[in-house]
Amino acid sequence: MTKNEFEQFLSESFKEGVYFRELRLSEKEVSCLKAFYPKARVKRTSEVNDALSKSWYEINLLPVKQRPEKYESLMQENIRLKNELETLKKVNK
Questions:
Q1: What does each of the 93 residues of the chain score in pLDDT, given as a tens digit?
Q2: Starting from the edge strand earliest in sequence, which strands make up the sheet with 55-60, in order?
Q3: Does 21 lie in the same domain as 53?
Q4: Which of 9, 24, 47, 72 is deepest in the core (most CB within 10 A)?
Q5: Same structural domain for residues 8 and 48?
Q6: Which whole-number Å values give the CA distances from 21 to 18, 57, 77, 82, 89, in the listed order?
Q7: Strand, coil or helix: what is 5?
Q8: Of 6, 12, 39, nearest to 25 (Cα)?
């Protein structure tokens, strides 16, 4: 597969709002994928086990990297919502 064909394959694989896929790729294809989508998270999920030297990879184009302060604010909001829910349950009894 040429580089242009592979880029077309990637575009087709991640079209229409798809940001997570599991693809069977060679090491060279993984390198091309990382060049095409530099912020993608790539995780190998199998060992190389065929004549084409390909492995399965989980590809995530929108990796979540939460900063600690963002995580802390989410936890506080979660606690606030739980308390609000408990209050509403008591009022409706």
A1: 788 899 899 999 988 888 999 999 999 999 999 998 998 999 999 887 667 789 999 999 986 665 556 667 777 888 888 888 888 888 876
A2: 20-25, 55-60, 41-44
A3: yes
A4: 9
A5: yes
A6: 8, 8, 31, 34, 41
A7: helix
A8: 6
- pTM equals 0.62
Helix, strand and coil percent figures for the chain, each rounded to 5: 50, 15, 35
Q: Based on the domain organization, do 25 and 38 belong to the same domain?
A: yes
Concatenated DSSP letters of 29-42 = HHHHHHHHSTT-EE
> Shortest CA distance to 23 belongs to which of 1, 52, 54, 62?
54
Could you tell me if 22 and 57 are in contact, meaning their C-beta atoms sit under 8 angstroms apart?
yes
Reduce the DSSP state of residue 24 to 3 states and report it.
strand
The single-letter code of the amino acid at 63 is P
Whole domain around residue 28: which residue ranges?
Answer: 3-60
